[in-house]
Amino acid sequence: MAGPRDTVSRRRETRGENGSANLKNRKIRPPRKTKTGLWIVLMALLFVEVFFYAWCRVQCVNTGYGIDRETRRRQELLKERNTLKIEMARLKSPERIETIAGTRLGLVMPDSQKTVTLP
Question: Which residue of 17, 48, 65, 73 has the lowest C-beta tally within 10 Å?
Fold first, then answer.
């Protein structure tokens, strides 16, 4: 019957006469499974997650800059529209049209005898 010392997984070495190790009596343990692969996968996952978070933040900031740029452009377009409305009103004014008709085109207002009213 084997005692507890027979199943101990300690390695025993006995030195021979010439100082070399006697490996006959030594029990060989199966190699331990290291967790290096798991750590590499976890670190790669963390690395990808950090880059994804940074990419999301950059996209968010770029979107904010785009919104700000378009808001400023909208304000400029509204100012230009108001300026063009004022200019259109000035160009359509009856006094201006009457002045141009009299000076450039040589037109005059008709007398009441030359006007014909239609029913």
Answer: 17
